[in-house]
Specification:
This protein is an alpha+beta fold and 80 residues long. It has two helices and two strands. Helix content is 26%, strand content 12%. The chain is flat, with a radius of gyration of 15 Å.
Length: 80
Amino acid sequence: MHSAASEPPSKVVIVGGGIGGLSTALALLQRGIDVEVYEQSTVLKEAGAGVQLGSNGTRVLICARLGGRVVSGSNRSVST
């Protein structure tokens, strides 16, 4: 286990390929940390749930360099 004073880990394993797991993986990769994501589903697909983003969530996407995929001021679905 790493303490706050030690160097970051060279590799992180994430269990779950949902929005949280993939967002975490992207953030770690952008910081140069190797990541492995494990997901029990064999196909990534919509789960029938929607996501609503407030201004703070939008800022996080912009910091993660995903801001160009956000449709401002709209409630339309955005496909990737």
